[in-house]
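By convention, the C-alpha cell line describes the chain's fold. To illustrate:
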Amino acid sequence: MNIKFIERKVTISDDLKAYTEKKCKKLDRYFNEEADGTVTYSIQRGMHNVEITLTYKSFYFRAETCTNDMYASVDGAVSSIDRQIQKNKTRLSKRMRVDSFAKATPIADVVEDVPDEEFDVVRVKELEVKPMTVEDAIMQMNLLSHEFFFFINSEEKNAYCVVYKRKDGGYGLLKAK
C-alpha cells in the first residue's frame, strides 16, 4: 500500500507514521493490487484527528476519527474502514481479491455479520440539465431550497458539475473528469 502522510498544524513523529503504516498494511489483504492511501493528521480544539482515505480502482474508503490520543485515532480510523469493507463484503468481493474475506482478523471478529441491505431506489426524478455558470447554479439551488444542484458548467467546456452546501456554511463544487 502506498501511503502519503499529511500533517495539518501538527508535527508527527516517525514512530506514529510507522505505527499508522503497520495498521494500514493490515487492510492490504483485501486488495489484488496496490492501493493508495492518504493519512491526514490534525489537532482541533485539543482533540487528535486522523482521516484515512484509501483508493482502490474506482472505490474510495474514508474514515475519520477524533480522540484524545493520536494512536487511538489511527486505530479507530483503520477499524472503521475494516468495518466498511466487512459490511459491504458481498458487493465488494466481486471486485476485490478472491481470498480477501477468507481469514478473519481481530478487527473483523468484532464486527457481527451484517445482513445485506438493499439499495432501494424509492424515487426517480428526471430533470432538464442546462448549461450555466457556477454562480447561477448556486442561485438556482438556493431558490429551490435544495442541498445540491446538478448542472452543466458553461465556463468549463460544458463539464458536468454539482454544487452543494457545506456544513461550514460555504459551497462545494464537484466536477466530472
In short: The two ends are 25 Å apart (CA to CA). Residues 104-111 have pLDDT under 50 and may be disordered. Residues 70-87 form the longest helix (18 residues).
